[in-house]
Design brief:
Number of helices: 26
Number of strands: 0
Largest sheet: none
Number of domains: 4
Radius of gyration: 29 Å
Distance between the termini: 62 Å
Order of helices and strands: HHHHHHHHHHHHHHHHHHHHHHHHHH
Shape: globular
Length: 410
């Protein structure tokens, strides 16, 4: 029915904009007739309709479509030519590779280079990596470099990692952030030492300067904080246990007066770096990390207390059980339920009485996590209380968890 309506629209509608919308909708319909109508639309008398028809062809994979698109990349109209390049990339066809690589190599202007790189990113063929690397290394245009980084990453070809690291030395902050994003998704542990070294150098000012100095250039400080957060995310993703020197420094609280929107952004940036650092410290497994994390348990921000409690659980050091148990009585429910979960993870049998007390908590999530931990701890003294919860707790999840926990207790 939809296809018949689109066909009628293309044949009878007089409004060019409406006909163009109909041509663009063909790519959403997986049928031979839709493909045929899109091919016919590339010969329409109106260019706007032709452009949308060419865009729709990217959804199809037949030899006829690929051949048509290869012809259309030579169209006199720049908009049709560029749309055909992108559609060729979307087809994923091996035959498209040579056309797109040639288009990139022969780019006579910036726009064609960007479109060719966009198409190659969509094609995602490892055999195009060398051509993309060449453009990346030779271009001085930061936007072209960013497009090339994405295209290189999408090829997943070995040998591009050095270029991803090279992006971290760019003077353009957007390029550096993109380089980190690419490394986070396509890099490996081998790149982490260089990433950490770069992060420490770039973030020095954030921790060597006092708050007043940082506020003199709020825009620059905000950018540095954004970059530091990207560095932290990347290290945590690739090799979280290796970042202790950076985590330790970045977890230090920084007092920022919240007197303007820029100051609020800076304060938020420092909060994010603290959160990421405390999260990462949990994976380092060191005594020093444990001390840094425990110091954050008394922070005024509940989100910091929550992530610190979680990280003590990740450290899996029984010596931190008492510190975690104190967090059962935090004023914020999120901190309490994380503490309840962590105590089960730490096999904290000495905390069974405290966990039983938490079964009366007003938060269903706190009760649920306490119930589960009691089950994992084989808490014999909790059986009667669990049976009661299984019958009359107002939250179904808690009732079901109580039944499960009771089944674990021998």
């Amino acid at each position: 029915t939809a296809l018949r309506a689109i066909r009628a629209c293309l044949e009878k509608e007089k409004d060019i904009a409406v006909r163009a919308q109909c041509a663009g909708a063909l790519g959403n319909i997986d049928s031979e007739l839709a493909e045929q109508l899109a091919l016919q639309g590339t010969h329409d008398e109106d260019k706007l309709v032709r452009v949308q028809a060419v865009a729709s062809l990217g959804s199809f994979r037949s030899a006829a479509t690929v051949e048509a698109l290869k012809m259309l990349v030579n169209d006199k109209s720049t908009s049709i030519k560029n749309t055909a390049l992108v559609s060729l990339g979307r087809t994923g066809s091996i035959e498209a590779m040579a056309v797109l690589v040639e288009s990139l190599a022969q780019s006579s202007n910036r726009e064609q280079a960007l479109v060719s790189l966009q198409a190659l990113a969509l094609l995602s063929n490892p055999d195009t990596a060398e051509a993309i690397r060449k453009v990346y290394t030779q271009s001085s245009d930061e936007e072209i470099k960013r497009y090339a980084l994405v295209a290189m990453a999408n090829t997943r070809a070995h040998g591009s990692e050095s270029h991803f690291l090279d992006a971290l030395s760019s003077e353009d902050s957007e390029t550096r952030i993109l380089g980190l994003t690419v490394l986070r998704n396509f890099g490996g542990p081998g790149e982490v030492p260089a990433i950490i070294e770069r992060a420490i150098i770039e973030s020095n000012d954030l921790f060597l300067k006092d708050s007043d100095q940082l506020l003199l250039n709020p825009t620059g400080t905000i950018v540095k904080l954004q970059l530091l957060n990207e560095y932290l995310k990347t290290i945590i993703r690739l090799n979280p246990g290796s970042g202790e020197p950076l985590y330790a420094r970045s977890s230090i609280p920084k007092l920022i007066p919240r007197t303007s929107s820029a100051h609020l952004k800076i304060a938020q940036g420092f909060y994010e770096t603290r959160w990421q650092s405390l999260y990462g410290l949990g994976y380092t497994g060191t005594d020093k990390a444990g001390e840094i994390i425990k110091a954050a348990l008394t922070d005024s921000d509940a989100r910091i207390r929550a992530v610190a409690t979680r990280s003590l659980g990740v450290l899996e050091n029984p010596g931190h059980i008492d510190s975690v148990q104190t967090m059962l009585f935090d004023e914020v429910a999120e901190v309490r339920w994380i503490a309840a979960r962590v105590l089960g993870r730490l096999n904290a049998t000495n905390s069974i009485d405290a966990l039983i007390e938490m079964l009366n908590d007003t938060s269903a999530q706190v009760r649920l996590e306490s119930v589960l931990s009691l089950g994992y701890l084989n808490a014999q003294t909790a059986k009667q209380k669990l049976s009661k919860l299984a019958e009359d707790d107002p939250d179904q999840r808690v009732r079901e968890a109580a039944v499960f926990a009771a089944s674990l207790i021998e």
